[in-house]
């Protein structure tokens, strides 16, 4: 692969959001089918990664979607969805195409998420609740069988805080770790 440069771009247009849904289908089919099976993968794509769901998440649930794109082609090669909440910021989605893994892209997205979270908790419209959470954080859920990403998150400073089994409908469950990266304004992670 030739030397490529990447940038993170906020997704706003219908076309960009439709493209990220297609990217989700490509990544999920390749990565999650062996992990959770084809039926649950297809169900989760339809329910949680469709263009309609992505647009609803942005409109109604305060999500921001971003893509990593090649600077020369604008091809989407990874995506990220962030949702501010009372703890800090939830990393709802962070996925990289197979052929672009191990190039530092996920690490770049974690750093971007951390910067986003630090700015978010300072904003006048922040939903962060300092009375309940003395240490703001980034947090995410990861399938317990997804060992590669679990190890990556640990190397990035995340800790396993809890476990969750979530009924997502149609007799499917997500069996996840809840992983957290704590930060404050005075200390760098």
TrEMBL record:
Keywords: Acyltransferase, Transferase. Residues 6-184 form the N-acetyltransferase domain. The keyword ATP-binding does not apply. It holds the Pfam family Acetyltransf_7. GO terms for molecular function: acyltransferase activity, transferring groups other than amino-acyl groups. PROSITE patterns: GNAT. The keyword Acyltransferase applies. SUPFAM superfamilies: Acyl-CoA N-acyltransferases (Nat). InterPro entries: Acyl_CoA_acyltransferase, GNAT_dom, YpeA/RimI_acetyltransf. It comes from the Archaea. This is Acetyltransferase (GNAT) family protein.
């Amino acid at each position: 692969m030739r030397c490529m440069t990447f940038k993170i771009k906020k997704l706003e247009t219908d076309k960009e959001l439709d493209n990220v849904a297609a990217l989700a289908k490509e990544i999920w089919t390749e990565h999650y089918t062996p992990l959770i099976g084809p039926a649950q993968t297809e169900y989760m794509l339809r329910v949680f990664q469709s263009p309609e769901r992505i647009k609803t998440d942005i409109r109604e649930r305060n999500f921001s979607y971003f893509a990593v794109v090649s600077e020369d082609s604008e091809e989407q090669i990874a995506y990220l969805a962030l949702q501010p909440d009372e703890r800090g910021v939830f990393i709802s989605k962070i996925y990289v195409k197979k052929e672009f893994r191990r190039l530092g892209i996920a690490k770049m997205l974690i750093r971007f998420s951390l910067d986003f979270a630090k700015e978010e908790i300072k904003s006048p419209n922040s939903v962060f609740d300092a009375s309940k959470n003395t240490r703001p954080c980034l947090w995410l859920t990861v399938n317990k069988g997804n060992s590669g990403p679990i190890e990556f998150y640990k190397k990035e400073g995340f800790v396993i805080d809890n476990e969750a089994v979530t009924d997502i409908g149609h007799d499917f469950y997500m069996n996840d770790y809840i992983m957290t990266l704590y930060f404050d304004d005075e200390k760098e992670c």
